[in-house]
Amino acid sequence: MDRFLNFSESLKLSREATFESESGKNMIDDIYTDLLPNNGVIKKVNLPRTTIVTGRKGTGKSTIFQKSISDKTKDRKAIPVYVDTKTVYGNSTPSIHLDEYDIIPDKEIVKYFVYTNFMKSLIDSIRETVYLKLNQNRIVKLLGLNDEKFEDIKLKLDEIKDNIDDVFKRIDLSLVQTIKEHTEQANKSSKNIAVDLSNKPKLTAGAQSNHDTVVKKEFNNILFSYLDIKNSLIENLLKIKEIIKIKYIFVYLDDFSELDLYAQELIIDNFVAPLNNYSKDFVKFKIAAYPKRFYYGELDNQKIDEISLDFFDAYYTYDLSSSKMYDIARMENLALDYTCRLIENRRKVFFPDDGFYKFFTLAPKTLHQLLFEVSLNIPRKLGYILSFCYLSCVINNKKISKKDIENASIKYYDTIISRFFTHNPFLKRPFEDKVSIENQKTLLIKIIERQVENRKSILKSNEPIFNVPKKPASHFIVNEKLAYLLDNLELNNYLTIYNKIKDTTGAFTHLYALDYGMCKKNNIPFGRPKDGKHGKYYKHSRFNFSRVIMDHFNTTQILKCNNGHEFPYSFYEDIEVFDFNCPKCLKNHEFVKCEVTVHNQEILDRINELEQENLHELSFAEFLVLDSFSTMSPLALSSYAVAEYVNKTESSVKLLINKLIDKSLIVIDEEISKGLDKDHYKITKKAMKYVEKINTILGKKKANSQVLYK
Ligand SMILES: [Zn+2]
């Protein structure tokens, strides 16, 4: 029983945790399971190149680092140095007392002193680890390090420490000086316009952000003039390289995406990139990051490798490199194979005398398939789900059934995914993400509602494509150009990119899978029909969600102030109480009015652009179909009615309708379809306007259009 718990817990482990058996032996080599066949991932990570390993939380980045460190320790060609970036950053505080220098430490100013101390601590911890590792290895004398050479290295390392201490002391003091001068100036000028300021809150906002920009600019200048990584660090490292036989230092920066954008810029541009580019191949970095939350900056693309651990990216790249052809079924097999190996490798360690499968009512093969579907290859998620099963079944001497695993996946959705997203002030978002969390939650609800509707109509439908067991509705497609709007939901595990496929118009789309537990909770069966006949199941226009997303952003209203604070429309009455002054700005004693607005203009512009593109690429046949909808509007039409109207076969019209849905120009009218038990469609406003415009240009009158088309 305890073994089952150890088994599950070992899947949950994250950074710094070491996999130790009861006898204290490091088990990493036994339980490490590579995502790709033939150890494709670890082989690449072990190469003497700088590598970015990207993957969502729990995809096993830290485990890969541990395996690599274990390998490198054995082959002795490199000194592995592990840095837990998150902790080093979290422990960073200003290294000087600001009040001693008469500086009122406002948040913005403190930030820069935190940054400088963080950089210093990072370099320090690397230097220290190198020293410790060499000191250990000296005893073994495998490196050919005699006392004399070791003393020499120690001297060089001390020199690095002195240099770095000195550099950062100068940076801090220079920063103090700049901030003092700047504050004095600002005080002088603010006295002059103080009267104006109180009347025009917008000006205060401007002055504040201007102040911030100036401080940031000065900080960058100071760094640029004082931080000479080449002389203070690289030169000494190269001298060390000459003394020892070791060829590389591998620096593993774990959890790098926990840093904000600016901290990443600092570290990459001022430290990682120079070392990577100028250390004559001595220092190589291994960086663990979340997708879309990594700053590349001055890292030379030619000199770095990138490995993605996320479901689709990993297998897509692998498959393309191995066969030049891409196939969704083969990808699913590879992914399923990973889940099997993951379970099997751990089973051999924790249940050497077998007995693992006795805890389940399911046969191993069925179990593996189910565990793949609930986890989509995220080991930590699998660990949580098995731990939940341990609590609900194993300790009660009850065997784990399919239902129990499904319930565990619902619990995972409720307690981990959902809670994390809604109540977490430290939520890590993609850098490009401009949509508020509240807004994304609303979008998610719309996606689920739409799938629930789809499920209902599929159950009733007699279309052959829907004639499959279970009739799942867990996947959907979205035009590639809109996919970035789902990045945050994906990063936080509500969705997973399952594939990239072309829709009926030939446009690229992302096929997404919703979280298994979230589907279960909403009575949506999970799965993708696998037989050839139904391979295009999710290509059906019902599952094209581009329109859902466009409509969401086109119509969702929000309250927004000039400083960029956003509130959901439901807060209208609360904010009215403050006479529409932004509550967040009020906290900073600023009066800034909130206005009702549609969402981010930039997003709307991009959506508009895509719609225009789709309209301009219409074929004549598609135009005729649109025209019939426009003529009959606001009536919803079935494919049969349109076929009559344009005098074509119903099957050819169905194909055209699918294309028009994929282009987001017509939509399914859910209400009418439900009432009449047959899919009915209607034209979108934008398409309607377009058809009218074309008809005006052509000088056609509605009355004779029918004649013309025949
Ligand atoms: Zn505000």
Name some characteristics of this structure.
3-stranded antiparallel β-sheet; 710 residues; alpha/beta; 10% strand; 14 strands; 57% helix; binds zinc ion; 5-stranded parallel β-sheet
The N- to C-terminal Cα distance equals: 76 Å
Tally of strands: 14
Q: What is the overall silhouette?
A: globular
Are any ligands bound, and if so which?
A: zinc ion
**Alpha-carbon Rg, integer:** 30 Å
Q: How would you state the average pLDDT, rounded?
A: 85
Instruction: Report the major sheet.
Output: 5 strands, parallel
Q: Give the total of domains.
A: 5
Helical run tally: 29
Strand content: 5-15%
* Strand order within the widest beta sheet: 2-3-4-1-5
Give the structural class. Answer: alpha/beta
Can you give the helix content as a percent range? 55-70%
Q: Assembly state here?
A: single chain
What does this structure look like?
With 710 residues, the chain is of the alpha/beta class. The protein folds into 5 domains: 136 residues, no CATH class; 273 residues, no CATH class; 108 residues, no CATH class; 49 residues, no CATH class; 106 residues, Winged helix-like DNA-binding domain superfamily/Winged helix DNA-binding domain (Arc Repressor Mutant, subunit A, Orthogonal Bundle). It is built from 29 helices and 14 strands. The strands form 4 sheets. Strands 2-3-4-1-5 form a 5-stranded parallel beta sheet, sandwiched between helices. Strands 6-8-7 form a 3-stranded antiparallel beta sheet. Strand 3, helix 11 and strand 4 form a beta-alpha-beta unit. It is globular and about 95 Å long. The site of zinc ion has 7 residues, from helix 22.
